[in-house]
Amino acid sequence: FRFDELIKYVDDHQEEYVQTLREWVAVESDSSDVTKRAELYRMMDMVGEKLRKMGGKVELVDIGEEQLPDGSSLALPKVVTAQFGSDVNKPTVCVYGHVDVQPAQKEDGWATEPYNLTEINGNLYGRGASDNKAPVLAWIHAVEAFKALDMDLPVNVKYLIEGMEETGSNGLDAMIKSQKSTFFSDVDYIIISDCGWLSKRPALTYGTRGNCYFFAEVEGPKQDLHSGVYGGTVIEPMTDLIGILDTLISPSGTILIPGIRDAVAPFSDEEWKMYQDIEFDVESYREKIGVEQLMYNNKVELLAHRWRHPTVSIHGINGAFSAPGTKTVIPAKVTGKFSIRQVPDMDPAVVEKQVTDHLHSVFAKRKSPNKLKVKMIIGAKPWLADIKHSLYEAGKAAVKRVFNVDADMIREGGTIPIARTFQDVTEKSIIMLPIGGFDDGLHSQNEKMSRYNYIEGTKMFIAYLQEVAQIKKD
Ligand SMILES: NCC(=O)N[C@@H](Cc1c[nH]cn1)C(=O)O
Ligand SMILES: [Zn+2]
Ligand SMILES: [Zn+2]
To answer: Which segments constitute the Peptidase M20 dimerisation domain (predicted)?
Structure first.
């Protein structure tokens, strides 16, 4: 397979790879901010251009529009699909990734400019560096290396790169359904590298949590009021909102929504054993986060609550006064944003009803004249793979070849909204092959990707393509 030549090629081109990542990170492709939509469109064009230059058969697929809360609509970023090779005697893999990012501003507490990739001590800091631009580029560079050396790809490779993952992959479900018998007809396996290792040890990921994201809006007076002039005479929307949000979860982490845990699959002895065997240091995890105490101090419980129990997180309140200073306002309308991570066998449709019924019930008890509206904005299901599938054997072999260690078998607490759709609609097997570090700070200040993980990860993807080629077709 001339593996050594490919490895040398990657080493020789690492400066170019870092430079391309710098160009991609410079694009503020924040999918949650509609004012940045032009940047997102530009990002998708750049991905298409890169793949086209490599000789791929590239399409930018129109996936329609999204409806904005003010009633207007906005075009969704096109999805980039590409194909390299169509040899019927080889398996075909489809690499999925995303190039949209979470919001970031220097004032949030970044040490460097978030959209200016900055290397410090071997770490490449920038928004989207690890989630998910470097992994997408590593997959592109893996194929580029074969082509540059005029070597046949061991498998046919397709790419599906989207720009709305961070806001729930709007429009992608429908696109996958409509392309089931076209783009996906010859795809054998789906590969996703949109997650990270658990420790310094490389890992293979076999499960992700889903997510149900809610907006709870409480509306009262027709405009904001002076709290000195009107305070004590009106029932304040913010007080109502804080009151109902406080009924979602107890201080010790028990979810208080009736029925919410009914569908959670029991934690088996086999799982307990698997978690027990994973190398994971609770104390350094605690230190890295910078908290005095975690919810659980025992490794197995901590991992179980991170990966396979539902959790409630309260993210923010729209309409609330949040600027520095002491404005004495009573906000007229506030919207609480919270999400509930989903695990097998929870169903977002059931969760939506449980949460809506619960919030309306506790709100009714307050006898408030204000109006409550509850809306589920994202309803992404959890995903779980068969770890005995040959895709995982191939993954273990690729990790061993490049990193010379055995891969950890892990789950991911985050969500890849489209993973379950891929599985249900295409009925293909999926593997998640992370190259992100455990401390990359995804969605957080100072997100980074280490140069080591980026470059060695590219080599691991090359090895993986070779390993997958040896899987006997099902
Ligand atoms: N790297 C995957 C990721 O960060 N996914 C997001 C997707 C999401 C879920 N709900 C809203 N967005 C995540 O938060 O897990
Ligand atoms: Zn991601
Ligand atoms: Zn993300």
So the answer is: 207-363
